[in-house]
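Checklist before submission:
- one chain only
- standard amino acids only
- sequence pasted in full

Submission:
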Amino acid sequence: MTTATQKKRDIWGSKREFLLACIGYAVGLSNIWRFPYLCFRSGGGAFLIPYFIMIVLCVTPLLYMEMAMGQLTRSGPIRAIAMLCPILKGVGVAMIALNFFLATYYSVIIAWALHYLINSFKSPLPWMSCDNSWSNKLCSSDIENSTYIRNATEEEASLFSTPPKESASNQYLYNYVLQISSGVGDFGGLNGELVGCLLLSWVLCYLCVFKGVHSAGKVVHVTALFPYIILLILLVRAVTLPGAVDGLRYLVVPAWRQLLDPNVWFLAAAQIFGSLGVSLGSFIAFASYNDTRNNIYHDTLAIVIANAFTSLLAGTVVFSSLGIVARKLNVEIPEAVAAGPDLVFVAIPPLFADLPGSNVWAILFFLMLVFLGIDSLFGQVEVINTSIIDHFGDRLEKIPRRKAFVSLCVCILCFVCGLPHVTKAGMYILTLVDNYGVSVPVLIIAYFEAIGICYIYGGNRLAREITFSSGKRTSFFFPFSWIFVTPFVITVIAGVSIFNMKPVRYGDYIYPIWAHLFGLFIAILCLIWIPLGMLHELYKNGQGKSGLRSFMKSATPTFISQRVNQRQHTRPESLQEHRKEVDSDANSDQILLTQSEIPRQEDSSHSKQSDISESPV
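Returned file contents:
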């Protein structure tokens, strides 16, 4: 990015807009359906222990690091990582690729919510009745005191002496909304209604991002706060209905033996990574529109606390509802819980039938899902837009309204690539992409990001830069975690996830070999940029140099901080002298940040900063 481009960089209208945008991105659909399911599956209250440990030891330090990277460099993830750790510049490209795949199927879930929202204006609610063209003989709108199975066929029903029943909401989702086929190879053509809803979701996303942070900053005032209002209303209503206490008991009663299962710790880490969106680059992009003097410490704490609070609030609402549904179905709560869209689109909608003004409740609930999804979606699109403008900003200068143009191109491309998800095999494809293209790659990206910034650039050096730019002391906890704790935790989590990786299944459906190979190909498309970036940087710096000298030059940061700029005003230095200082900083990173390294400001303009001691303590 040229200096001219940097000077023209937008900034948030206020600190409140930045914070609401980050909270809106971090709080998404995963808080509504995945957290309650994993909490139940992994021992109820016992799951909360590794969940909060992972928040403190792993996610909070990484979030603080990413926001510092964006704010200090004033660049998106590709350029920010390339400036701080050139040899791992491919990590930034991998983040963009991961965001692209995530956006293409995340928008599909928003399309489902829009489909339900539109049909919520019908009376009676269409998913409460079996008198529909999509209903079969297994459908029952009153399945109390009967056997319950999910998505059964009539042939399967004949195996039971007492024919099982299937809820009307279940048949509405699978037979009407998804029109699900027999397998991943049976595409069956596009679903016209879902294509329209998918297009609408991308139109809404474009309207949020086409002016960059100026439009997004205004939208988040509604999209980030509205879901909390709806969740609180649903909570007050749900806890007053029969069966709610049974559901809450599953949420809070701990099964302590589950703490000995390493998979529980992995699931807790995977949930908070996936929910908060760390290592996807969005927080780097958001923070790049901040003033470099902004205090990101309070922002980090606010985002983490809001995410955890929302998960607990949503868990309370969802488990109260599941207890109500389980009592109505006359089944145990484990049979009413499903990992995935079943939880949101099957288990919750029947609850509205028991509420006065059921259409109003349904409209509010699905509008909340749309807002939650849009908040996260435009965060994913914004990181792509930011990276494109950072890299091609000079070439796009002649295009009028370049931000709107780039946003339009990205939204159209993501819409087209999301069309396979709205075929009749779309649910199988979505599950495949989610497991292979997102879950494991995000941990691998987090590993290389932590190694590059914490060790190659230096955790202590980053802490000094934050302290200097903000004028606030960087807590001892962050450089300590960056150097000794976070990389180790991520290494263990990534290793366990790869070691325990099993073939993907959707319910009882077993994917063919070619589908697994396709899933691995998607994962490779996300991660291949990391080794390619290494090779490119080594080749660029290796001409006429030995292997070690080439590596050292490739690992030398090109980011010139405010500290160095201030010294250049009083003692001009060449680029070679700057690199020597960088090497000196790298050696001093073996010593943790101490209070003696905190700068003292003589005035608020930073024009007369005192020098910072670079000698080891």
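Reviewer check: The two ends are 37 Å apart (CA to CA).
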